[in-house]
Write a structure and sequence with these properties.
The complex is a heterodimer.
Chain A (H helix, E strand, L loop, with lengths): L2 E4 L4 E4 L4 E3 L1 E4 L4 E8 L5 E7 L5 E4 L2 E4 L9 E3 L8 E9 L5 E3 L3 E6 L1
Parallel strand pairs in A: 2-12
Antiparallel strand pairs in A: 1-4, 3-9, 5-6, 5-10, 7-8, 8-9, 10-11, 10-12
Chain B lengths: L3 E4 L2 E4 L5 E7 L5 E8 L3 E10 L2 E4 L6 E7 L2 E6 L8 E8 L8 E2 L3 E5 L1
Parallel strand pairs in B: 2-11
Antiparallel strand pairs in B: 1-3, 3-8, 4-5, 4-9, 5-6, 7-8, 9-10, 9-11
The chains are: A mainly beta, B mainly beta.
């Protein structure tokens, strides 16, 4: 079946450091891939998405590239801020299904 | 106003009580979902609905029931709550178009003593 694996946290960085959160997937067919962010006390918010191979999703300085050859969708940001502290979820869905598959989440803590 | 609204936001109750969590949406989406979130386990699907007459069990439906009262409303019930149902519960919606993202409410934190 389809699955998403993301790196375990927590990830602790200093402000302005470079961020990478790894995400790999297994899927039949051609999945669409998503990154969601969850701030304390809130629901998941879509951060970015990519719907086909080599697409790059980007938003708020975050980027992720859909790599079919390595089945990966790693999240990156060049310079993190304290306000980026949150839990990040990688997710996928495939055409014709109801199901969204989520990773277990990676907690990011950014220190001033 | 939020596109997906969950009530209540927090609830503490006792073992054996019946509880209803409510979800309403203004996005006009056909599909609605209920998930629970537990630390280290990510999101697990409880029930999903494609329209008012189409309701389906997810991976962890035991001990839960749902009602889709209208396109915009989808409620989750715990008939007789037990402590291991203590969790954060999320409602989500999606359009009936493949490969589109879900939209989430802010969650209900439920504690069962």
């Amino acid at each position: 079946g389809n699955s998403v694996t993301q790196m375990e946290g927590p990830v602790t960085l200093s402000e302005e450091a470079f961020l990478t959160i790894n995400c790999t997937y297994t899927a039949t067919g051609y999945p669409s891939l998503f990154w969601y962010v969850q701030y304390p006390g809130e629901g998941l918010q879509l951060l970015l998405k990519a719907t086909k191979a080599d697409d790059k999703g980007s938003n708020k300085g975050f980027e992720a590239t859909y790599r079919k050859e390595t089945t990966s969708f790693h999240l990156e940001k060049g310079s993190v801020q304290v306000s980026d502290s949150a839990v990040y979820f990688c997710a996928l869905t495939t055409s014709g299904t109801y199901k969204y598959i989520f990773g277990t989440g990676t907690r990011l803590k950014v220190l001033a | 106003d939020a596109d997906v609204t969950q009530t209540p936001r927090n609830r503490i109750t006792k073992t054996g009580k019946r509880i209803m969590l409510e979800c309403s949406q203004t996005k006009g989406h056909d599909r609605m979902y209920w998930y629970r979130q537990d630390p280290g386990l990510g999101l697990r699907l409880i029930y999903y609905s494609f329209d008012v007459k189409d309701i389906n069990k997810g991976e962890i439906s035991d001990g839960y029931s749902v009602s889709r009262q209208a396109q915009a409303k989808f409620s989750l019930s715990l008939e007789s709550a037990i402590p291991n149902q203590t969790a954060l519960y999320f409602c989500a919606t999606s359009p009936g178009i493949s490969n589109q993202p879900q939209h989430f409410g802010d969650g209900t934190r439920l504690s069962i003593l």
